[in-house]
Design a protein that fits this description.
The chain has 280 residues and is of the alpha/beta class. The chain has helices at residues 29-42, 80-98, 100-103, 119-125, 153-160, 164-173, 179-185, 196-211, 215-230, 233-247, 251-261, and strands at 5-11, 14-19, 51-56, 108-112, 115-117, 129-133, 137-139, 177-178, 190-192.
C-alpha cells in the first residue's frame, strides 16, 4: 500500500484501488507516479488479478484534478527550445502514468462520485467501464486554466462518446455537467442512485461477475477492443485471427463448453493467466 493509493481484495480475483490524498485527491507528480506504479504492479498478474475497480476513498469527491500549487516549477534559464523539450518529456511522462489502466491487461472499472474535474476525466477515460453516482459533476476544466487538456481526455473522449457535439461543447467551454448528461454523452454506462458507497458496490458487483469468466477470454477481449479502436475493421479481423489462433488452444474453451453441455450450477474454476510467483 502506498502513501496515497490503497489496494484491497474485496472478492476473489478482484482488486479495489482507492485514491486517498486529502482533502480533494488533487494530483501532484508523486501521486500520479504512485498511481501508475500501482496499476503496473497489478498488471503483472502474479496474484491472479482479473478485474480492478478504481474509486476514491474520500466520501465527497473523486478528484479535483491537478494540484497546481504542488507542482514543481522550473527556475532554469533555458532558452524556449530547450524548455519546450523538457516540457514535452514531462507531459509524455504524465500521459504514460495516467494511461496505466489502459495498459493493464484486465478490465478496469471506474466508480466515481462527487466531482470529477480536469485530470479526473483523463483518468476515467483510460478505464474500460465507468459508473457514476447520481449527481456526480464532471468538467473538462483545462480550457478555463488557459490550456488544452493534454493527458488523455481529448485523445480518448471523442472515441468513447457517441455525441461529438457535446464533446466539443464541454471541451471548449469547461462547463460542468452532471451524471445524467455524462450518460447521454456516453462517458459513463450507468448512473447509480446514492453516493460513494452505492456506486462502489455496484462496480464491485460487476467486477465479481466478470472475474468468474475465463481470464483468457476477458484479457483477449480487452486487447481486441483496444486494437479495434485504433485500426480498421480488416486490420482488426486479421489481428483477431492471429490472437485467437493461440488463445483457442487454451483449456478454458473446453471447460466452458463442457459446463454448458452438462448444465453445471456454476462457472468452471479457470486457472490463472500466469503461474503464482515462486517462493525462494
Amino acid at each position: 500500500m502506498g502513501r496515497h493509493v490503497k489496494v484491497s481484495s474485496p472478492s476473489p480475483h478482484v482488486r479495489h484501488v482507492e485514491l486517498e490524498r486529502q482533502p480533494v485527491n488533487a494530483f501532484t507528480e508523486e501521486f500520479w507516479m504512485e498511481y501508475a506504479q500501482t496499476f503496473d504492479d497489478l498488471s503483472k498478474l502474479t496474484d491472479d488479478v482479473r478485474v480492478i475497480v478504481l474509486s476514491s476513498a474520500l466520501p465527497k469527491i473523486f478528484t479535483a484534478g491537478i494540484d497546481f500549487q504542488g507542482l514543481k516549477r522550473s527556475e532554469d534559464d533555458l532558452d524556449p527550445a530547450r524548455r519546450a523539450i523538457g516540457l514535452r518529456d514531462h507531459i509524455l511522462h504524465f500521459q504514460h502514468a495516467i494511461s496505466a489502466p489502459e495498459r493493464c491487461p484486465v478490465p478496469v472499472i471506474a466508480a466515481v462520485h462527487g466531482a470529477v474535474i480536469g485530470l479526473g476525466v483523463d483518468i476515467i477515460s483510460a478505464c474500460d467501464i465507468r459508473y457514476a453516482a447520481q449527481g456526480t459533476r464532471f468538467s473538462v476544466k483545462e480550457v478555463d486554466l488557459g490550456l488544452a487538456a493534454d493527458i488523455g481526455t481529448l485523445a480518448r473522449l471523442p472515441k468513447i462518446a457517441g455525441n461529438q457535439s457535446l464533446v466539443r461543447e464541454f471541451s471548449y467551454t469547461g462547463r460542468p455537467f452532471l451524471s445524467d448528461e455524462a450518460e447521454k454523452l456516453g462517458l459513463i454506462s450507468r448512473v447509480v442512485e446514492g453516493g460513494r458507497d452505492a456506486v462502489v458496490q455496484a462496480a464491485l458487483q460487476l467486477a465479481k461477475e466478470i472475474a468468474l469468466k475465463s481470464p483468457v477470454a476477458v484479457a483477449g477481449t480487452k486487447q481486441l477492443l483496444l486494437h479495434a479502436r485504433d485500426h480498421s475493421v480488416d486490420q482488426n479481423l486479421e489481428y483477431t485471427a492471429t490472437w485467437n489462433a493461440a488463445m483457442l488452444q487454451a483449456e478454458d474453451l473446453k471447460q466452458a463448453v463442457q459446463a454448458g453441455v452438462t448444465k453445471a450450477k456454476g462457472p468452471p474454476a479457470f486457472r490463472s493467466l500466469r503461474p503464482a510467483r515462486s517462493k525462494l
